[in-house]
Fold this sequence. Notes:
The complex is a heterotrimer of chains A (163), B (690) and C (268).
Chain A: H1 3-28, H2 32-57, H3 61-91, H4 149-162
Helix pairs in contact in A: 1-2, 2-3
Chain B: H1 2-28, H2 33-52, E1 65-75, E2 97-105, H3 107-130, H4 137-156, H5 160-178, H6 185-216, H7 221-224, H8 227-236, H9 238-255, H10 264-267, H11 273-282, H12 287-294, H13 296-300, H14 303-324, H15 330-350, H16 354-384, H17 402-416, H18 422-438, H19 440-446, H20 466-496, H21 516-536, H22 542-547, H23 554-561, H24 565-586, H25 592-600, H26 602-608, H27 613-657, H28 667-689
Chain C: H1 2-22, H2 32-50, H3 75-96, H4 100-120, H5 124-149, H6 164-188, H7 204-213, H8 224-232, H9 236-258
Amino acid sequence: MSGNDAWLNNYLVLGALLFSLGAVGFLTRRNLIVIFLCAELMLQGVSTTLVGFSGFHGTWGGQVTAIFSLSLAAAEAGVALALFVVLFKRGFSLDVSIWSDLREEDQPPVEDEPLGDEPVETPRQWPHLAPAGRLPERRPGVSGEQVPRREAVAAGEGVARNG
Amino acid sequence: MAEFLVRAIPLCPLLACLFVALAGARWLKDKSHLPVALGCALSCACSVLLLFSLPPSPSNPSGQKTVKLYQWMEVVEPEVAGIPGYQPGGAGGSPGLDVWIALRADSLSATMLAMLTFVATLVVVYASGYMHDDRAYWRFFAIVALFVFSMIMLVLSASFLQLFVFWEAVGLCSYLLIGFWYEKPEAAAAGMKAFVVNRIGDFGFAAGVFLIWVTFGSTDFARVLDGQAIADVYQRNPYLLTTICLCLFTGAIGKSAQFPLHVWLPDAMEGPTPVSALIHAATMVTAGVYLVARCTPLYQLSPTAQEFVAVIGAITALLAALIALTQNDLKRVLAYSTVSQLGFMFLGLGTGSLVGVGGAMFHLVTHAFFKALLFLGAGSVMHAMGGVIDMREFRGLKNLMPQTHTTFLVGALALAGLPPLSGFWSKDTILGAVHEQAHPHAVAAAADGETRAEPVVATTPFGMSRPSLYNLLYWIGTFTAFLTAFYTFRAFFLTFYNGPEKVPHAAGHHAHESPAVMCRPLWILAVGAALLGLLFGHLTGVFDGFLGRTIPGLAEAAHEHGINWTVALVSTLVALAGVALAWFMYKEESPVPARVAALAGPFTRLSENRFYLDEVYKTLVVRPLEALSQVSRFADWLLVDGALVTGVSRIPSLLGQLPRPIQNGLVQFYALAMMLATAVLMWALLSKQT
Amino acid sequence: MAQFSFRVLGALVPLFLGIFLMLPRGGADRSPIRWLGAALVVLSLVLLVTFPLTSAEGAVAESSGTALWSLPQTLSCYTFHALAFVSVAAAALMITARNPVYSALWFSMVLLSNSGLYLLQGADFLAASTIIVYAGAIVVTFLFVIMLAQPNGAARYDRFAREGFLSALTGLLLSGVLIAALHLAMRTEPRGPVAGLASRPADSVVTIHSAANGNSLLATHPHVGGLGRMLFTEQVVSVEITGLLLLAAVVGAMLIAGHRTEETHVRK
């Protein structure tokens, strides 16, 4: 195996690995944003492959294609994030599992596994300044209304356990 | 020229129908009657011209003109051998089925066409006033145009099969128009009743057409109604002709509302009155008469069929006249009168003599005029009375509606058969023909002892000799003539006289004479009803002469027969007696009718309840059928639906349950399946490469 | 081939087993299972670099190539190893992180190391634009959205992976098949760059490498200039279309996200 071959081989193997890892993440994760990041990871694998070929052949073609895929990824990200925002506005969650309307009519929606006994990671307690001056007046009903339901439940559970 | 006319006559209403159907709802709206009236009028003009453009010639003695439009179907070499007694191809015809859509015009169809299009034009004009505020104005005229087209095609048919098609088409139009106000449950039910009852007759008709095809190898009039072909069949099997005739007559019974199947026609009065006038009095119901008249050559050779037709006709005439005596609904009186008059026509056809056929056809034409006139007059009354048609609700309308009164009187006189109005001439011809059958020796003597071509059958299926049977029928006919005069004038007096003017509340501001657009057709029809008989009847012989081109020998027979003055005198006296009796009982408000009704007791009830025929049908036919349908519905539910359809369909559904949980709606899960499958496939591919 | 497949699988199985173990399944963030998975991932990466995969077949075994990632022992070789290790490891951490913020950050780590790898191949413009566009813009936008939607950090659904085993198996098969196909191609296809191709970009690192191979042509426009020339001459239509695509994406994004819904019903 000549050196040039070896270089190409290495890039291709790396690309394949990144692509497969991205696929695994794409298939298992439930957060819309993480899923999308995994898709970007798969694109990165492809880009790596393209760059490897570019170097191997000594031409610009691979790089040009990689640049196009980069702009494509950017466009995709813009549209996808817009969609996420809309979906989040509707469901108050980034969980992809709540969008399962395509299932067979009489199939129950896929349920979450029950929480184990392990302690749940809680939101970090950031240090804050000691209270001073007057508390700002709170209008009733403003705060807490927009808290997503699942988040609120999880946070509440966490607090309860910690407390 | 004739060819152009024959093409133009059906084309005009068809174009009008399509135009109104497409443009009516959106653009024409309350002008929808214009294209239809125009189409009918053009068609009428062409029909009148056609009367004069079918000259007989030595090579074409009937003057008929056939225009072939296109070949409908062609079946080569049918396998009908194996039916015992029948030979494929029949009398010299080539085997197979070769049906053309063709227009066949001869003097018979030209007569029908002229009558049909003329009445249709007047009715359309009348209807434009009568229906003026209807919601579905355009729909009405579209269907009427479709009807006119179908009826024209029926009359112009050149084969039994084509005739059957348009026979059904006019039935469809009738159904649509009876149920025109389909929101009314009675109207919808009446439409359905007409349709279902007609099916029974049409079944017989279809069987007759099949039989004709099997026997003659063709359904073309030109081949079937050919003297030589019929003679051949008669030689082979005379009963075959009788069967064919009876089958065809079954169709006529249904369409023309004869005795066992007459129940649909009175109910059909739920439709708009112009429809009653056009379809259920003047034209469609006479299709049966036209059919039998068209098949005269067949019936001539079958005395049994003649007697059957005559008996059915007489029974219908008498029965319907008896029922009409006690009806309170003006339109129903006229409906039963139509049934009765159609019975008269069949009585004439059933004599089997050419004079009788000519009389029946002439009665058909005159009846179309005076019955359409009477119906339109009744519609005018109904229009003025705000939709009320019960004669107990109004009376004394003579001064309120003078034009309607006068024209109605002309129609009533014609219907009663008083000379010199048209009804007299046609009815007299029929009665004369029946009388001739009752006294064959006299005629034979008059014909210088010439022996009759057909064998005189000694006994009839009805258990008496032919002359005595026809003698009975003659007296039934005469009695019916008396009843006709009586009930017609009963209705007339009840409506226009019978005490001081009385108008129902529903009339409102409508209680006035109808507009000119409705009255003018009445006057035109009245002139026709009054003069037709005088101009074309026996006195001049024009009608028989014209019809004689198609039915050879008619003109000579009619001339020979002349006018039987005895019969004419008797029927006139009888009719006068009927009118006089009605005058006596109903001219002024009096307790006489009630007393008479009480005296007649059971007969009155029998008549009022239409001889309980509807109830009998309900018990004997409708109820058992309903029960049967319930049983079959249950069987269908249990066996077909339950065991077969649902059972079989459950198998794939059960199998489908197995992979169903895979469809959990998670897109990621689908992606997983896809990627896994792709990987496995690629693996397999790679393994194969090495 | 069969042997090769088993060898590749031998190296890849620990990787995806480790990934499977590292996937979130409701436990604590730093559970022993996760550590075990991380150890397996590291092990498999080491195996990939060092395990002699092709020696048994002999046909492919040449002077320097017995391991899958076999390179001449040069500076660029070590650099490659280091960057590739970081890239794969960061990718593994990215897809297994509980907190989406960490995922995004690990992703930018992947991007950074990939950029280094691009530089190694002389793709300097691509390296820079990857950092600027991806790490600088896209990932930051992601972070914005995450902060907007999930200010409380890991949500319940982030702590559970779905179909972890099947996914890891899929990944294993996928990567195995890809690498096997690669191997097959390397064994049968003609070697080296096709004669008469345009010049490869020259770079300090690459120059060494290219010089060592002795088959690189010095281009008339060796640097970004060459890429730019290519983009705006040969590929100008593609560039325009890409611009159009970006415009459409911008308009679409505004249309989608700008649509105000007052719908507040929560789906189950």
